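@channel sequence for tomorrow's demo:
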Amino acid sequence: MLAIRLSRPVSQLPGKTLSVCDRANGTRQSLLFSSASFIRMSRRTYAGEVDPVGSKAVLVTGCDSGFGFSLAKHLHSKGFLVFAGCLMKDKGHDGVKELDSLKSDRLRTIQLNVCSSEEVEKAVEIVHSSLKDPEKGMWGLVNNAGISTFGEVEFTSMETYKQVAEVNLWGTVRMTKSFLPLIRRAKGRVVNISSMLGRMANPARSPYCITKFGVEAFSDCLRYEMHPLGVKVSIVEPGNFIAATSLYSPESIKAIAKKMWDELPEVVRRDYGKKYFDERIAKMETYCKSGSTDTSPVIDAVTHALTAATPYTRYHPMDYYWWLRMQIMTHLPGAVSDRLYIY
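structure tokens (generated this afternoon):
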């Protein structure tokens, strides 16, 4: 796959030393690649787009902030009828207020906790009653709502594993199952926001990785099942956009770390020690500061998945470091990637 993406021999292109390392653990190797070819890869040309019709309805989850908030505004500007699912609409969240301030008959915020079967079913009723012709269905569902956390396996409580899975994985499944009848009628689209960590594991991120690997598997199974019915299913795998989505702040990282340490079994605290624990937290803080602040590649990918006549199966809005690392970890033997990123 790497060879296919390089349109000319590396020797004929301006060279760039690429540091292949585990940014969490500090291991570092150097490889020479062309920056030009990776720029072309990261700015993929989306050809064959279909202009959306104003009557096409799309529901996006997690619109209080981050990707969902930007998506709701962007899809509205493209002409879609947008239902913006917001966890904190009933609490008067600032993001919800900004979306409501547009005062458009094509953008409606709705209270939606993807963990609540009652709220999901209520959202189905709202969308169904708002469509001009419900028998023609709803064009698109974007499963964007998600939460994240960090912590090595022995540092992470079972409650945390369950909490992250309830939103990221079961929330995606619950929303999809509930809206599929409407999507099928329109022969529409399901777009699931996964992550590069849904394709490759990373230390201290097992609660998040587990759920995103699950989203990948669920999406693949759904794509196979929906193909004969005319419904297209796409997966968007963003790289590190933590800085843009405000998932973490220095204060929230410290709060999570304190709670985690306080709740650790005594044997774990004794065996690992506070110094090791603090070093892991410091690496997480560094990782959170290194992400991209420009969410447009993600917004463009979702838009293409919703509007293209032939959308891609997977989209990779990420910088070349993470794209290359993902190719290595998913295509080469584990012994190779382990040597680069663990040993």
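heads up for whoever presents: The first helix runs from residue 2 to 5.
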